[in-house]
Amino acid sequence: MHKGDTVPNPERSPESVATLSMIPSCPICGTALSGRQTVCSARCRIQRSMARRAVKQTERDAKVRLLLNEALEMLRDPKGCPHND
Fold first, then answer.
1. Is the pTM of this model over 0.90?
2. Domain interval for residue 66
């Protein structure tokens, strides 16, 4: 054998991939989940829902802010607004 060569493990084929057993956990508090659970409790479900709503509200606020800024720019620019005569 040459330096750096490895001895293949006879119990595992070279094509196999070693994987870790992953236990799903609650995205809010980290508690282990079972079955088809996505969160561990009603409290965590509420927190997840509130977080999702906050993200959507932030995105909506950013869009409204952008549109308002564009409208203000149009009002400031005499060529941009047809009502500035």
1. no
2. 24-85
